[in-house]
Automatic annotation (TrEMBL), chains A, B:
UniProt entry keywords in alphabetical sequence: DNA-binding, Transcription, Transcription regulation
Descriptive protein name: LacI family DNA-binding transcriptional regulator
Listed SUPFAM superfamilies: lambda repressor-like DNA-binding domains, Periplasmic binding protein-like I
CDD domains on file: HTH_LacI (cd01392), PBP1_LacI (cd01574)
SMART domains xrefs: HTH_LACI
Organism phylogeny: Bacteria, Bacillati, Actinomycetota, Actinomycetes, Kitasatosporales
Length: 349, 349
DNA sequence: GAGGTCATTGTGAGCGCTAACAATTCATGG
DNA sequence: CCATGAATTGTTAGCGCTCACAATGACCTC
C-alpha cells in the first residue's frame, strides 16, 4: 500500500518487484500447487506491498467467466421477495459469485426482457428471477437467453427450472389446522389472481376441504395489502353467524387488515372467528391477537436455487427438468387458539 | 439469432458479415456521429442477424470502466433499507450502471471490509453503503479504498460523503405536531443507541421540547422491532395519568408494539395517549388506530446519492465535503387526531 | 485540375489476465 | 557422472474490445 501510482498495479508490476514472471504471480493467486514455498512467500510479500488486486475484467476476458450472477426482483418491499433477495446474495457469495440486481416495477415480457438484457450486458453467467406472478413465468419461458435462468416463487407452474416453497402443502397445513380445531369449514382470502403462489394456496385449501367432505366457499380476493385485507374483512364480518368461523388468509399483511375489520365489526378473534395467515413476517407475532401463520424458509430457498443455477451453468443438470420443493411450517399463535391447548375436536368427515 | 456457434459472435464476426471493419461496428454501437447511414444500417442488420451483444469484460478492460456500482446493505427486511436498495438500483440503471449488492448481517469494520473487497474484486467503480449504524460510519471513514464510497442513512454523522433524510427535521415535525395539539410534553421511544438516525431523532425531539420550554423526559430504547415497542409500551402505560399523554416512536414497527401494549393496558389511543411513528410503512395506515407518522422519500435518496457517487467517480466533487439532506414529511392520521380536525390548542410556552 | 478540407473507414497496438507450451532446475539412480 | 523425469518457472499467444492514428475518397475552391 506504499505506492500510489495513477494506475493500480498490474500483475507484471508485482512480478517485477518479486523478481519472477507474471505467470508465477498468477499461479500464486490461483493456488496452483507447483510453486516453491519460498517463491510463493516472495510473491505474497510483493502483492501485499503494492496492495495489488487482480483486475476482474481482464480475468473475465481471459477465462470467459465473470463469476457474476443476476437477480431480477419485483420492486417491492414485501417480506417474501426481500428476504429471498438477501438469501440469494448470501448463498451466491458463499460460492464466490457476485450478485447484480435489477428491480422491476411490473413483471411483463417487456420489463423482464429489458432486465435480462441489462444483466446480460453486465456479463452475468446466469440469472435468478424472483417471479411470483404467473405472467412472469410465461414471459420467462418465452425469453430465451444464452445463459440459464432459474425462477423462484413461481409456485407449481414453472416451465423453467425453479426452487419453490411448497405452497400447496402450506395451505394444507393452515386449512387442516383449522379443521382439526373443529371448524366446519374454512373461508379463504386469496392473493392476486395472477400470482401462482396465490393460486397454489387456493388449490391446497380447496383440496383439503374437499378431502374432508366440505364444499369450499367462494374464495375472496385481495392484493396482499392490508387495505385489501381490511375490505375483505368487512365482507367476511357479514358472514359471521351464517357459517363463517374460520378464515385462512393468503398472507400476513392482509390478515392484519382482516383482524382490524373484524374487530371493528365487533367480531372477536379467535372466539368468534379464527384467522390463519401466511409468511410469518416479524410483525405477525404482535398483531392483535398474535397471528397463527405459515412460515417459509427463504434462506433454504436461496441456497437451493443458487445451487441449481450453478449446476445449470456448469451443465450438470438438464435444463427444464429441475424443480425443487421446500417444506413450509405451521406456526400456531393466539389467532386460532385463545388458550394454551387446542379444543381437540376431531375433524368432521 | 439464426446461428448457434459454440461461442457467441464477436465484433469481428459482425464486421465480416457486414463487410466492414470491427472498428466501424464499434462506432455504430457507440453512436459515433461519423458513420454513413447506409453503413450503419448494414451493420445494424448484421448485429440483429447474429444476435450480437458486446462483451462487457473486453469492453471494461479496454475502457477501464466497468459501469458497475456496488451497494452494501444490512441483511434486513426493514422497510427503510429495503426501499433504499430498490431506489438505488433504479437510479443507477437510469444512468446505465449495473448494481452489485452485498448484504451483511452486522456492520463492523470486518464485515464492511470484506464486503468492500468482494465488490472491489467485482470491479465496481464506486460503492453506496446503506450504513445506518454509527459503528458503520466510523468503519467507513477508516476503510480507504481506491474507489469512492457514499453513505446513506448515516444521519448527521457522516465523515464520508452522504445523502440523508433530515432526521432532525423529521423528529421536529413529529414532536411539534404533538405540542401544537396541546400536549404538555412528549415522550420518546428511541431506536438502538448505535444508529445515528435514531440519535438524530432523539436530538430533534429534545431540541423541540427545549425550545418550547419543556424539560424532556428520559427517552426509552427499542431495537426497531414490534416486540421492543411492546415492552416499552407496557412501561409507558405505567406513566399514563402521571403526565404522559403523547409518545413519539422512532419507527412504525415499534409503534405497532406500543399501540398493542397500550390497548392491553386499557389505555386508549389517541384519547388517552397520542402516538406518532416514523417511516410511513404501507401497513401503518391500518394499525389500530391508523398511525400518524413521518414519511421519508427513499426514491429521492436513491437518486441523489447515485448522482453524488457518479460525481465523485468522475472527479466532479471534492470527496469528503459532499453532504446531501432530504426533507421528510409529516403524515397525520387517527393516532393523534381522533376526529376530523385538531383540537387547535395553542402550544405551551 | 491541383490542393485542401471534410466525412468516413481501416489499421495496429494495447488493456491485464490465463492457458498452453517451452525451458529450466533439481534430485535421483544406474 | 550423466541420463531421466518430475518439479518449477518462463514465454508466447490470444481473450474481444477501444483508442489513436492513418488512409481513403468525395467534394470544394480558386
Amino acid at each position: 500500500m506504499t505506492h500510489s501510482p495513477l494506475r493500480p498495479p498490474t500483475m507484471a508490476d508485482v512480478a517485477r518487484l518479486a523478481g519472477v514472471s507474471h505467470q508465477t504471480v498468477s499461479r500464486v493467486l490461483g493456488d496452483h500447487p507447483n510453486v516453491r514455498d519460498e517463491t510463493r512467500a516472495k510473491v505474497q510479500r510483493a502483492i501485499e506491498e503494492m496492495g495489488y488486486r487482480r483486475n476482474s475484467s481482464a480475468r473475465a476476458l481471459a477465462t470467459r467467466r465473470t463469476r457474476t450472477l443476476g437477480v431480477v426482483a419485483s420492486n417491492t418491499t414485501l417480506y417474501g421477495p426481500a428476504s429471498t433477495l438477501f438469501a440469494l446474495e448470501e448463498a451466491a457469495r458463499a460460492e464466490g459469485y457476485l450478485v447484480s440486481t435489477v428491480s422491476v416495477r411490473k413483471l411483463t415480457v417487456e420489463t423482464l426482457s429489458e432486465a435480462l438484457d441489462h444483466l446480460s450486458d453486465g456479463g452475468v453467467e446466469g440469472v435468478i428471477a424472483i417471479a411470483p406472478q404467473r405472467s412472469a413465468v410465461e414471459a420467462l419461458a418465452e425469453l430465451r437467453r444464452p445463459f440459464p435462468v432459474v425462477a423462484v416463487g413461481t409456485g407449481s407452474a414453472s416451465t423453467v427450472p425453479s426452487a419453490n416453497v411448497d405452497q400447496h402443502l402450506g395451505a394444507r397445513l393452515a386449512t387442516g389446522h383449522l379443521l382439526a380445531a373443529g371448524h366446519r369449514t374454512v373461508w379463504h382470502l386469496a392473493g392476486p389472481e395472477d400470482w401462482q403462489e396465490a393460486a397454489d394456496r387456493v388449490a391446497g385449501w380447496r383440496a383439503t376441504l374437499e378431502e374432508a367432505g366440505v364444499e369450499p366457499p367462494m374464495p375472496l380476493r385481495g392484493d396482499w395489502s392490508p387495505l385489501s385485507g381490511y375490505r375483505a374483512g368487512q365482507e367476511l364480518a357479514g358472514w359471521v353467524g351464517r357459517g363463517l368461523t374460520a378464515v385462512f388468509v393468503a398472507n400476513d399483511q392482509m390478515a392484519l387488515g382482516v383482524l382490524r375489520a373484524l374487530r371493528e365489526a365487533g367480531v372477536r378473534t379467535p372466539q368468534d372467528v379464527a384467522v390463519v395467515g401466511y409468511d410469518d413476517i416479524p410483525e405477525s407475532e404482535f398483531f392483535a391477537p398474535p397471528l397463527t401463520t405459515v412460515r417459509q424458509d427463504f434462506s433454504t430457498v436461496g441456497q437451493r436455487s443458487i445451487a441449481l443455477l450453478l449446476d445449470l451453468i456448469e451443465g450438470r443438470t438438464p435444463s427444464g427438468t429441475a424443480q425443487i420443493a421446500i417444506e413450509p411450517q405451521l406456526v400456531v399463535r393466539a389467532s386460532t387458539y385463545p388458550y394454551a391447548s387446542p379444543p381437540g375436536t376431531a375433524p368432521p368427515g
